[in-house]
Amino acid sequence: MSTIRPSRKSSRENSGRSFGEAQALAVELEMRPLEARCRLGIGKLLLETGNRREAGIVLSSAIAMLGEMDMRLWLPEAEAALAAAVAAPLQLKRVSPVA
């Protein structure tokens, strides 16, 4: 019997949706530690999908929140993800000239 596995894209989409819902709930309930962790997860997902600029913004926000709350355990992970977002080479799209 074979198992049907979701594609990586649908898995990322589901993860992104779940992080977004959790973050919205964390904001509503004023649960800043959870909000910071959600931002970290969203930033890492954005980085995986190649959205480096947006990932950098979200990860910077997560790092600021983690630092404000003295959540040192998560800072190295967030800082490493931000470094990856900043250091990754740009992937420029080739544009064909208009004739």
Describe this structure in words.
This protein has 99 residues and is mostly helical. The chain has one domain (10-87). The protein has helices at 8-28, 32-48, 52-68, 75-87. The termini are far apart. The mean pLDDT is 86.
> How far from one another are the termini?
54 Å
Class by alpha and beta content: mainly alpha
In helices, the fraction of residues equals 55-70%
**For the CA atoms, what is the radius of gyration?**
16 Å
Number of strands: 0
- Secondary-structure element pattern, one letter each: HHHH
Mean pLDDT: 86
Q: Regions with pLDDT < 50 over 5+ consecutive residues?
A: none
The main sheet comes to: none
Task: Note the total helix count.
Answer: 4
Based on CA inertia axes, which overall geometry fits?
Answer: globular
Number of structural domains:
1
Determine the strand fraction and express it as a percent band: under 5%
